[in-house]
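Support request, please re-run this one:
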Amino acid sequence: MLACPDAKFQPVYVHDVAQAFVASLDADEAIGRAYDLVGPTVYSLRELVECAGRLSGHSRPIIGLGPRLSYLQAWAMEFMPGKPMSRDNYYSMQVDSVSEAPLPFGLQATPLESVAPVYLKGVYPRSRYSVFRYYAGRKVREI
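Re-run finished. Output below.
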């Protein structure tokens, strides 16, 4: 059961974040500024969980919970070891984590489709080639 299945996210590749950080060190215009660092595509939580399951070879049926059951699930999970979800997470997912701003400093956002297979299905030697295809400007296969 998935709490807040329609919550919106725009995941960013950690390498893009690192590049933005390094570029900001030499940019005078970055002093005192904050930047929204997001990937190029908006996904629902359901889409991200389905993608992770499919790529890792562990697809499972997803039952999306409504707001009340999502809240109850978050509350109950606060008492579990490791606190896998909390009411604070629930409240955070009520606001979309997206932005229309491009990456700063002329950086190009890396699509999830080019890096997720490397992390989630990295057991196949060829899975890392999607990243190389993206940076070479070649078409990346859809997830």
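The first helix runs from residue 14 to 25. The two ends are 23 Å apart (CA to CA).
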